[in-house]
Design a protein that fits this description.
Elements (H helix, E strand, L loop, with lengths): L10 H15 L3 E2 H10 L4 H9 L5 H22 L6 E3 L3 E4 L7 H12 L9 H17 L2 E4 L10 H8 L2 E2 L14 E5 L8 E7 L14 H7 E2 L5 E5 L6 H7 L4 E3 L1 H9 L8 H16 L3
Parallel strand pairs: 7-9, 9-10
Antiparallel strand pairs: 1-3, 2-3, 4-6, 5-8, 6-7
Helix pairs in contact: 1-4, 1-5, 2-4, 3-4, 5-10, 5-11, 6-10, 6-11
Amino acid sequence: MRIGISDPSTKEGVAEWTELVLMVEEKSISKEEIKSLISNAGNPAGEEIEKELGEELTDEIKANSFISDVWDELRYRNRLYGTSPPYTIDDMVVSPNVKWSSRPAYMMCLLLSFFGIDQKCDGNYGKLFERLSNEAVGIYLGGRSEVVGFPRERKITMEYIANETKERLGRDLPANFKDGGVDVFTWKPFDERPNQILLLVQAAAGKDWKHKMGEVDLHLWRDTICWACDAIKGLTTPYMLTKDELSNHSKGGLILDRPRIYISTNSAKLMDKGLDKAIRGWCKKKLKQKVNT
């Protein structure tokens, strides 16, 4: 394999690696092959399995138990990806359903999640992820959406947003206002009146996504646009959240992680015409930097 397993000690780490390798290699991987690679990587997970069971186990039993957990994780993820998942899985083999070039948004999320962000090399990843988030949230809500993160690629003013949403404009913005922690503004209009669903979204492409929801300044936005009903916070992330992570952070607002971004954008026609091509180009550059050829 051209990509090593960076975290062989957790089922989530191995599953993340498996998803990426399926897209890069474009071929099936067997359970036995992954089991062997985990063993060669020096997987310490067997000690945790022994602690859970309260007894000493042979290396083979520990390896079989761990790969079973990995397979359960891959099946769980497969269900989250909906009716057209990027891979299929049976008892012994996991196989890609698509080529990544036909699902560039999914590939971008995988690359950001697995390799993280290299500020020197990753260029415009932030704006690309904002544009992707704008599409995903807009499609999910079935409404309208605008990228408002600073610096803006096109001029979006508070007057414009108030006019488009039919909400009342409030006080003037502070002179040093950038975006109030909001990258994407989404709304679902009914008619020519105010009172509608309003969503203020932080597009968090990095590993620090857990802290990003708190950057959305609802009070500042509420003072500037006097909503008829309160807006809610939202967050997008390229990561696959665990059940505990989703539970622990859901009180902050709506979360779209990688499976939800995938489902929203997988079969929909994107309004941002050049986005797929731009993301595809970014992915090719990232793969050239990170994957041994």
